[in-house]
Amino acid sequence: MTGPSEPSTPxxxxxxxxxxxxxxxxxxxxxxxxxxxSCVAPGYTLTASIGLIVAAVGLKMPAIFIAGFxxxxxxxxxxxxxxxxxxxxxxxxxxxxxxxxxxxGWMCGxxxxxxxxxxLSNLAAIAVEFFYLFIARVFNAPDVADLADNKxxxxxxxxxxxxxxxxxxxxxxxxxxxxxxxxxxxQMIVLVAFAIAAIVESxxxxxxAGLHFSLEWFNPFTGMAIGAFVIGxxxxxxxxxxxxxxxxxxxxxxxxxxxxxxxxxLCVISILLTYLLVAVAVMMYAGVGTTGIGLGNEEISENVxxxxxxxxxxxxxxxxxxxxxxxxxxxxxxxxxxxxARTMLAMGAYGAFxxxxxxxxxxxxxxxxxxxxxxxxxxxxxxxxxxxxxxxxLDTIAALGIMICWYYGxxxxxxxxxxxxELFSSARNVVFKFxxxxxxxxxxxxxxxxxxxxxxxxxxxSGASIFGIGLVFYMGFGLLALGLxxxxxxxxxxxxxxxxxxxxRDTPALVDESSLIQK
Length: 519
Known about the structure:
This protein is mainly α. It has a single domain, classed as Up-down Bundle (Amino acid/polyamine transporter I). Helix content is 66%, strand content 1%. The protein is built from 17 helices and two strands. A two-stranded antiparallel sheet has the order 1-2. A hairpin with a 2-residue loop joins strand 1 and strand 2. Helix 3 packs across helix 15 and helix 5 (102-138) runs antiparallel to helix 12 (337-349). It is found in: Cell membrane. The chain crosses the membrane at residues 30-57, 63-82, 103-132, 152-169, 181-200, 220-243, 263-288, 308-327, 364-385, 397-419, 431-452, 464-489.
């Protein structure tokens, strides 16, 4: 994305969408899926979420991954249908505004930006942990690994990683397809090799737990209390977060109306298969016990792969898993700036955020200013949470689930309302514009409500609390509530957006489908 781009022409029915100056025609279906997988970062995500999920549901981890996948899969169709009619880098913000008006749209965009900030802080923290772990193992210096547990060193190193990723992202390198092919390919190959090795060791009787594979692990209807199920699903939803990055690249795709939706579906299905393979492998090998390398051991819950790498892969290949997680975190740290910066860019372009955020670098054709702002806020957020909680990752993952359910759910319902006048004009519309998005939205709303309630109990997070209320509640619902205050501040500063003058609620796309090219 280093050359000039031709202004993009919005499809009929979306004439109020504006060209942001991004480079058009650069991303294909496979490249979009790779960028989505890079943003999801399966290596980083698994090592950060396995402990949380196992602590909640034990051997039901595969069932929980499937339960988290279902609303993601259904919502992916909502994204696909909305993007086919109104491709815009604002994605959820833009579509929810056009469906429900500026106030709902602003809060949806706010939730999306918050989710990204939380993920960026997690990514940097995991990258730092595996950075020191990799150095310690390669140079046989165990004390180096302990540097990640030193709060001051951890915060400073994490800020350095965030600053480096911000600099690189602001220069457009995050969309370099060749770099992402290498990083994503490397981590996926290592993860699959690790899973196969763990299964082989278990089958041969050389694993500590040596559990036999059971289809019961995939059954979500037995052996789980509702509270445990919701906590597990929240962790699972976090594990799939990032696939919608494909949809924020609509204005930069080769076919804006088709490529992003296809890339999103390819991404989310690939991630599910990877998660199920790894989940089964680590359970068969390590079990879910609370001692040793058992997945339920709190001492390894924030870094499961750190404990399993050498036992499964041996001394010669173990460091490869550390390197894969480091590469996964570093690559995702860059690509995760894509949805954050582009959502802020769109909100700035339509007047929902300060106009300065709508600026695009004339050479690199990326929203550099928005990227820098996202990086600065991420650094401040991580520092604050680290000083408040000893288990930063656990709390931020739980809070992230609240954010994801919020803006994904709004987007799913937005699809139903946006297409309300044509929902029953064909069987295809009934399924993809009505049934799938509606079910996905209902599921996400249910998880959101229960998650907010559960987050108030400190015991459902790391135990950290403020005035007796869990820190997760403040990071999740509390920050969403803060958005209400900021929204009214922006309304006073930028009334045009809230008056519907920059992005209209209704467009001819709701009623005039005959002139659109059919898929």
